[in-house]
TrEMBL record:
Leader peptide range in chain numbering: 1-26
Keywords (A to Z) from UniProt: Membrane, Signal, Transmembrane, Transmembrane helix
Entry membrane topology: Multi-pass membrane protein
InterPro entries assigned to the protein according to its UniProt record, in alphabetical order: CorA_TM1_TM2, MgTranspt_CorA/ZnTranspt_ZntB
A Pfam family hit: CorA
Membrane-crossing residue ranges in chain numbering: 221-239, 251-272
Organism: Asterophora parasitica
A cellular component term, taken from the record's GO annotations: membrane
SUPFAM superfamilies: Magnesium transport protein CorA, transmembrane region
Protein name (Swiss-Prot/TrEMBL): Uncharacterized protein
GO molecular function, one term: metal ion transmembrane transporter activity
Entry keyword Transmembrane: yes
Localization per record: Membrane
Length: 326
């Protein structure tokens, strides 16, 4: 749906035409027809009809743009389409296309009025000079009135175009806000994943959000591994003897620098996201000892597993002995 559909537009044109056909019967125009023998004034009456139709059409389009703006600001009140619907985006672009078309039509309309003003009617050559001058004066006055009205319509169209741009910016801002909220939820999911609590958080996540989070997590891990090597390659500029014999650097130098920087990056990242290793109140200095603590946790868990296995084997052995004695 645009500012007005075809039936509404046709009804507007019919009503305006029926009302404005009385222009030629008004006192003002009757006096012009009586004082001037120029038949071009009859053409001007139809030009005024088109002017009134233009005014009505732009007014309805302006009301529709205001309705869209109100619907975006108060969607529950007007029950307008949400910003996520493709239909609303298409409607905004259709209205913008109509505005561009109206701009070219108004330019043609202005050229038509200028042609009527500057081109005298050949039938007036046989009329007295006084009547011809008087008709020319009236013609210029009426054409200037039409040109001023056309300029008013064009300014109104430009104002509507600015309002339409405001609506489109509001739609894009709303979409960006929704995307930011989704990114915030994925970031919270990443933090909970580092703490080992993502399973509880997944209950409130949509499947698409979970898929995006997993993709972002995979990209983050790949970046953490390959970014240090890329940085070292950029620093070296690949100026190693194996590639450029005139340089002092060697490929082992590059590998040593890349591996050390990669290990340091992983060390720092895990230290800041090591909530599953240390309690929440652990200091930052203690978090940097996560490799030692991780090894201790692994050894402790293995010892506990061995103890559980021994406790399970003793009752079975006792039961076997009792069974043998009985």
């Amino acid at each position: 749906m645009i500012a007005f559909d075809l039936q509404v537009g046709l009804s507007i044109l019919v009503l305006v035409a029926l009302a404005d056909l009385r222009v030629g019967q008004s006192v003002y125009w009757q006096s012009i027809f009586q004082k001037s023998p120029d038949p071009t004034f009859v053409l001007l009456t139809f030009v005024w009809h088109a002017m009134y139709a233009w005014d009505e059409a732009l007014q309805h389009l302006y009301n529709h743009i205001c309705w869209l703006m109100r619907g975006l600001i108060f969607p529950k009140e007007t029950k307008v389409l949400t910003t996520n619907d493709m239909q609303l985006t298409q409607e905004l672009h259709v209205i913008r296309a109509h505005h561009l078309h109206y701009s070219s039509l108004l330019e043609d309309f202005e050229k038509t009025v200028i042609f009527i003003r500057d081109t005298p009617n050949p039938a007036m050559d046989s009329v007295l000079k006084e009547d011809r001058d008087y008709s020319s004066h009236l013609m210029k006055r009426e054409c200037e009135n039409l040109l001023s009205e056309i300029d008013r319509l064009d300014k109104g169209r430009k104002m509507q175009d600015k309002r339409l741009k405001n609506v489109m910016n509001l739609v894009f801002s709303s979409v960006n806000i929704n995307d930011s909220k989704q990114m915030q939820r994925m970031t919270e999911a990443a933090v909970k994943d580092s703490a080992g609590r993502l399973l509880l958080f997944n209950i409130s996540l949509r499947p698409m959000l979970i898929f995006l989070f997993l993709a972002m997590k995979q990209i983050a891990y790949l970046t953490m591994i390959f970014l240090p090597a890329s940085f070292v390659a950029a620093v070296f500029g690949m100026n190693v003897k194996e590639i450029s014999p005139d340089t002092e650097g060697t490929l082992p130098h590059y590998v040593a620098a890349a591996l050390s920087l990669t290990v340091a990056t992983i060390w720092v990242v895990v230290a800041f996201q090591s909530k599953f290793i240390f309690p929440p109140e652990t200091s930052l200095l203690m978090r940097f000892t996560w490799p030692v603590q991780l090894c201790l946790n692994l050894l402790r868990s293995r010892d506990q597993a061995d103890d559980r296995n021994e406790n399970i084997e003793i009752p079975l052995t006792t039961a076997t002995i009792i069974g043998r004695h009985t």
